[in-house]
Amino acid sequence: VFNDPVIYGLLIQLSGEKAGLFAGLRFEILYRKVTDTIGVYHIELTLPDEMRHLEFGEVSVTLPVVTIDIYTNGNFRVDFGFPPSLTDFSRSFSVQVFPFTGFAGFYFALLNGETSTNVPKVTSGHFGTVVEFGFAHQIGVGKTLSLAILSGGISITVGGMLQGVLGWYTPNDSNLPSERYHHITGTVALIGKVYATVDFGIISASVSLTVYASISLDVESYKAILLEVSAGVRVEVSIKIIFIRIHFSFSATITERFVIGSDSTPPWTLAAPGGG
Q1: Sign of torsion, CA 35 36 38 44?
Q2: What's the Cα-to-Cα distance from 61 to each of 104, 142, 210, 218, 241, rounded to whole Å?
Q3: Band (1; pLDDT cuts 50, 70, 90)
Q4: Structure pTM?
Q5: In this structure, are strands 59-62 and 93-97 parallel, antiparallel, or unpaired?
Q6: Among 5, 20, 41, 199, which lies 20 to 30 A Cα-Cα from 108?
């Protein structure tokens, strides 16, 4: 990828039998402009499958996908397998010791008001140092079953995700005091899943049932605290007759939101939407 002077990129990816030991390797480096005076180098590395997935007898270890952002002003962000959600830990570090499984990922960033997208955009001052962090994990137990034409399994997992932003605001008016901005979000979820497949050759059928419950908390400077409680169920059924497949599903979610306290006036003036 080359679009001078906005973006430059290079991707190296190997797969298939001819790649041999390096099958699964993915290396990406991308440069893009953040502002007129600041750029960022984005580097992402996924190790080859044989190096990423390690076996030590009864213990299986998977190494995380590593992402590093280096800004031309000295800011940086490192990410070791932080998941996009509590249901997708494919990028994360994992350890499996039957019947237990564990996944984890985290990130840490040292930025400022120009390179961070998670602090308010203000016109009455600026954010100097901005610290961003996140940690997520999932721990569970599972059991699989395989009896001739019948296969299936059951699993119960507990997961949690915590993300935070700390920023130090300095007003343009030197007579006014500096302020610390914070925004912390956290979620804890319990997920249970049962699945089974029956294969008669010409006809096969599979069914899965997922039940989950979660609680989330959102705490931000000068805003009311938000508490959300959710519970849901999802059922999926698939039937295959020769080459014809029929698939249908059902899901339902109940969500309750609670507001604790009320918003207050911050000491900064927000920039107009869409403005710099």
Answers
A1: positive
A2: 12, 17, 26, 33, 38
A3: low
A4: 0.83
A5: antiparallel
A6: 5
